[in-house]
Amino acid sequence: MTRCAVSPAAWAQAGRPKPTKLSQNPGLAAVVSEKLVQRWSPQQIAGWLARNPSSSMGYVSHETIYRSLFIQARGELRYELTRYLRTHRAMRWPKVVRQPDARGQRRVVLTIAERPAEAADRAVPGHWENTNGLVRQLVERSTRFLLLIALPEGKRAHLVADALTARILILPDALRRTLT
């Protein structure tokens, strides 16, 4: 087994947290502050800096601007800087983080592992698989019987549920066990 030799300079450069671009470049920080006072958004500032290659200030992303406002600023300084943002918020919520009140989440979630064991071995008919799209495919797991269901009005949840219910109720009770 060979080891990769890493230089001390590489270890020093890889250290976290690194100083931000705005803390290292006071000219760039001044331009960003000036644009914030003029009510520019961080996205507009980052775009403007990227389109001005002639400036010697460099480029900074909108995430760096937000991070410098929301993480580094404390107390009165935080208020002074965030009041120039359009939303005047002192905290930024990323779009990927779910709110703690469970909005947009399904209340009762059954996993595929909770299906009966007979559905897994495909021994008993009546267990169906569903595909996504404007034409739903219901495939019975043991016989591989296929039902096609068109959704011309779209694939919103209530439309899909109504179409699947109408189609599956045509089948005998013995063929209606689970739907995945």
Concise overview:
The protein is α+β, with helices and mostly antiparallel strands and 180 residues long. It has helices at 8-13, 21-24, 26-37, 42-50, 62-72, 75-82, 117-120, 157-168, and strands at 127-130, 135-140, 146-150, 178-179.
Can you describe this structure?
The protein has eight helices and four strands, in the order H-H-H-H-H-H-H-E-E-E-H-E. With about 180 residues, it is an alpha+beta fold. It has two domains: about 70 residues, no CATH class; about 60 residues, no CATH class. A four-stranded mixed beta sheet has the order 3-2-1-4, covered by helices on one side. The longest helix is centred in the first third of the chain and has 12 residues. It is elongated, with a radius of gyration of 28 Å. The mean pLDDT is about 75.
Count of runs of 4 or more consecutive helical residues? 8
Number of strands: 4
Give the spatial strand order of the biggest sheet: 3-2-1-4
- Derived structural class: alpha+beta
Tell me the domain tally: 2
Helicity range: 25-40%
Round the mean pLDDT to the nearest integer and report it.
Answer: 76
Q: Which sheet architecture does the biggest sheet show? A: 4 strands, mixed
